[in-house]
Write a structure and sequence with these properties.
Elements (H helix, E strand, L loop, with lengths): L4 H24 L1 H8 L3 H28 L2 H21 L7 H29 L5 H33 L6 H19 L14 H5 L2 H31 L4 H26 L5 H21 L3 H14 L3 H12 L4 H32 L4 H11 L2 H22 L1
Helix pairs in contact: 1-5, 1-6, 1-7, 1-9, 3-5, 3-14, 4-5, 4-7, 5-14, 6-10, 6-13, 9-10, 9-12, 9-13, 9-14, 9-15, 9-16, 10-12, 11-12, 11-13, 11-15, 11-16, 14-15
Length: 406
């Protein structure tokens, strides 16, 4: 048991389910935090950006940590941090008088683990022996699809839990979810890891950062994180407060359908990766994402808005794994450091995108606007990210085309 690379692959899949729990459980509880603890939009935005800011800092530190601490130790510790943080989210608010501080401590704890998982899981999959480049691209996309299945599972089970047991017992929910990463942390102690992970043969980061193409890849990562998480983090609350639907309907038609379509897109990409031009797919995805944000921002039809909230999941499906695959193909010796700096920029987008939308929403409602108007304005401003993504993809495409001619 746990002696083959198949066990390693499944542990990595579970790692991304853990990542999904870390990033998506709190948004389901935002309404509970508002009602029970009086936490407003600004403080909720602070919880979101603290999660991703912590992950961003850890992403940067992980590049150095990987040189002095084994990958096995780091990936196992990452899961234990995630488990501890989730359990603390359920228990600390009843122990500490300042409930917001209790939530912040919990978020920071599990974000440390989330940041390490983000940096380490992709290179672990990339290092599993496989000679085919297209097979590696497929494996990367399939790996990232498990984040979506994890997000969907978190939304369905957590929403069902609150529906059947009520929000009075909300605190047991993060405790239950905290058991998953703790178990997977012990699994990572046993599974085989490729020897190449311990080889310090990566391209120096300073050399990578002098490559114009790699800088554009980093911009793609930032935009991918912002495009995905802005809609993912705010869709449930937008459905409930902006479109005036129930929590259960908002969760199922917002983040749940978003995750379903995002996961489906990643599985399809893993199947057809050999036949698809990734640059063209990134451009198309950016255009679809832009359409989704504009529609949600401008439409007064609740059903249409919910459809495009969900469709946004399909539009962002390949952005993150597709950019990882481009980097892995173009910079074959990038190593863990390359994945670390990419995760850092991705998490920067994951934090900044939802935070910007939340701040704009708070400003609009603070000046007498409705919650619906505030959220729609936040989504309208967020169109900057798919626009930048489209531009970056086009430039990379023409650079790649020029290089092939030469």
């Amino acid at each position: 048991m746990f002696r083959t690379y198949k066990s390693t692959t499944f542990a990595c899949y579970t790692g991304y389910i853990t990542q999904a729990a870390v990033n998506n459980l709190a948004p389901i509880l935002f309404i509970v935090f508002q009602q029970k603890f009086g936490i407003g939009y600004e403080l909720i935005s602070l919880l979101i950006i603290t999660n991703f800011a912590t992950q961003l800092i850890v992403d940067g530190l992980a590049v150095k940590l990987c040189k002095v601490i084994s990958t096995r130790t780091l990936i196992s510790a990452a899961h234990f941090f995630c488990g501890a943080g989730l359990i603390m989210m359920g228990m600390l608010p009843s122990v500490i008088d300042n409930t917001f501080a209790a939530l912040m401590i919990s978020v920071i704890t599990y974000a440390v683990g989330g940041g390490l998982i983000e940096v380490l899981v992709s290179p672990i999959i990339e290092a599993i022996p496989n000679d085919s480049g297209s097979a590696k691209a497929s494996a990367m996309s399939l790996l990232h699809s498990f984040y979506c299945w994890g997000q969907m599972t978190v939304v369905l089970l957590s929403t069902g839990y609150i529906f059947f047991f009520g929000d009075e017992y909300w605190y047991l929910l993060p405790v239950i979810w905290g058991l998953l990463p703790i178990i997977n942390g012990f699994v990572f102690i046993k599974v085989p890891l490729s020897p190449s992970l311990s080889e310090d043969t990566g391209i120096p980061l300073l050399k990578l950062l002098r490559e114009r193409g790699f800088v554009l890849i980093l911009l793609l990562m930032l935009c991918a994180g912002a495009c995905e998480l802005t809609m993912s983090q705010w869709s449930s609350l937008f459905a409930q407060r902006g479109l005036l639907v129930s929590k259960q309907v908002g969760d199922l038609l917002g983040p749940c359908c978003f995750a379903l379509l995002m996961g489906t897109g990643r599985v399809l990409n893993s199947i057809f990766a050999k036949r698809i031009n990734m640059y063209a797919l990134l451009c198309f995805s950016g255009l679809l994402c832009l359409t989704c944000y504009i529609t949600v921002a401008l439409s007064d039809n609740a059903i249409l808005s919910l459809i495009f909230c969900a469709l946004c999941g399909l539009s962002v499906a390949v952005l993150w794994p597709g950019t990882f695959s481009l980097a892995a193909a173009d910079y074959k010796k990038g190593g863990t450091g390359m994945f670390g700096i990419m995760a850092l920029l991705g998490d920067c987008g994951c934090g900044f995108g939802p935070f910007l939308a939340g701040m704009i929403c708070d400003a609009v409602t603070g000046n007498g606007g409705t919650e619906a108007a505030g959220m729609k304005t936040g989504f309208a401003f967020s169109t900057i990210f798919p626009l930048l993504l489209i531009g970056s993809s086009l430039i990379l495409y023409f650079m790649h085309k020029k290089t092939k001619k030469n």
